[in-house]
From TrEMBL:
Matching CDD domains: Ubiquinol_Oxidase_I
Pathway note: Energy metabolism; oxidative phosphorylation
Entry protein name: Quinol oxidase subunit 1
PROSITE patterns: COX1, COX1_CUB
Function noted in UniProt: Catalyzes quinol oxidation with the concomitant reduction of oxygen to water.
Key words of the record: Cell membrane, Copper, Electron transport, Heme, Hydrogen ion transport, Ion transport, Iron, Membrane, Metal-binding, Oxidoreductase, Respiratory chain, Transmembrane, Transmembrane helix, Transport
Sequence similarity: Belongs to the heme-copper respiratory oxidase family.
Membrane topology of the entry: Multi-pass membrane protein
Cofactor(s) for this UniProt protein: Cu cation; ferriheme a
Domain of life: Bacteria
Higher taxonomy: Bacteria, Bacillati, Bacillota, Bacilli, Bacillales
Amino acid sequence: MEFFNRFAIPHPNPAIYASMIAIGVTVIAIVAGLTYFKKWGYLWREWLTTVDHKRIGIMYLLSALLMLFRGGVDAILMRAQTAVPENTLLDAQHYNEIFTTHGLVMIIFMAMPFIYALMNFVVPLQIGARDVAFPRLNALSFWLFFMGAMLLNISFVIGGSPDAGWTSYFPLAGNELSKSVGTNYYMIALQIAGLGTLLSGINFVTTILKMRAPGITLFKMPIFTWSALTTNVIVIFAFPVLTVALLMGTMDRLFGTNFFTTTNGGMDMLWANLFWIWGHPEVYILVLPAFGVYSEIISTFARRNLYGYKSMVYSMLIISFLSFLVWTHHFFTMGQGALTNSIFSITTMAIAIPTGIKIFNWLFTLWRGKIVFTVPMLYSVGFIPIFTIGGVTGVMLGMSAADYQYHNTMFLVAHFHYTIIPGVVFAMIAGLTYWWPKMFCFLLNERIGKWAFWFIAISFNVTFFPMFFTGLNGQARRMYTYSESTGFGPLNLLSFIGAIGLASGFILLVYNIYYSVRYASRNINSDPWDARTLEWATHSPVPSYNFAITPEVHSIEAFWDAKKLGIPIFKGQYDKIHMPNNSGAPFIMGCILFVFGFSFVFSMWIPVIVSAIAIFVCMGLRSFEIDKGHYIPVETIKENENEYRGA
């Protein structure tokens, strides 16, 4: 009974019981399916133990898509609850948990893995590398993220979800006001996943700086690779701040320290500062890779080289620097004084300048281009006006005096979504569609994809544009209900209708994948888009070694020059290729860390100690392990290359 009380949900309701049943049925179905089709060995050999950056990228992708729909359900429930005045679909506690987990899932467990899915698959190919610098560390990074995501997602059926908002401000997140273990889940799940992200940041910076093919100088790298480099530099500097803040918050909740309390020397504003020192760079961790995706797609389908290559690079570097100098604009109204507000207001508006440079560069690339409106291009072109609205409203919020009216209203919610959805979600769908044939050797259906785009683009505006008006009229964010006399009802109902349309667009996206898996032609070449960068120079499917011969690059668009000018990029003879061995250690360590985190959430100290010892044992075994990898012989390479050419 004691364990039942410990793991019980503080406020059970039919939706949570239904979720428990659904999770149980899904787990049973997966286990039964793997057993019936005898796929356990295949799953272990090819996926759970893989260190291939391409397969790790696909696992990130699958995880991100799952989390997209997990967070999307929360969004629909929120819009349904506020669709009409005095609605009782959700109670206050359930609503608090839903908007908290919606923010966490979408930012940390959907957008971040989507970004790293594309980085993992594309970046080594764009720089002509065999793999990332540290393949086994790359696998560990994925499993740390995945276990952190699973730890957070079981919270709503075991113990209760976090309910203090995705920013988890203290003292609201302290033990007095958040009595359940939900905030423990928040603190520990984010630490585990954040550690994986930090390791990925170190890995990709090392890969890009040290493993580029001959001739690829920094200013001959594709813009997407540049965006990956700047993003991961931000990760290296920003994520340790989050890790320290989460550790301090965990100690406050579990060990009675007073870092963020309002008594005994604590300082609740310390949490706000530490969180946003990480949190605002995090916005650009999400957006900069999207800028790289759009640059690749717009250049490809405008049939022109990217206008202002160096200005694009320098603007990314300026953005990454300024992203650390704007965090205080998140609490203009919290009393730090006019001088501080003025300084951070100036830096906030200054960061719009390099972003504006990018917008003009994309427009000049489109100018006089021979534009082909494929699905990736539609998302890329549609992004520009929608994101501009987000940028302009961001400048409005950056004016500290005006922010006293905008702060903590639905105006802010609308601004944030006008930035993140076109700046991240549109980019990820565009990038997924663009690189899909390189990942899976067939194209997604264009007609269904265009229907999905129009549903998503139109419904997005119907959902979020009314929030600008309700926010200006005084509707506070995080309100789970409101009275009819406020007049918020009609516009909130319109937002709910838009949310249904947005969900329909994503359902079409899933249907497109299903339809294309079944019916799309597999008879496509390795470069179906007539693209410009090096990843399209190798075969589809991409062999484990990426390139049979290491490419030699002489220009920014080496593959385009090879096709149009006949400049060769593959010279020399085949030679044996060294590749890393698969390893089950990253997966096992991820599982142990899941047990460690779950035990920590519920203060079960014996499992905590045992799992901590097991983690150090795994690290020790790895330190003494001698693993020299393996060589792919020349005969195998020749056989593979001949088979690919024949196909």
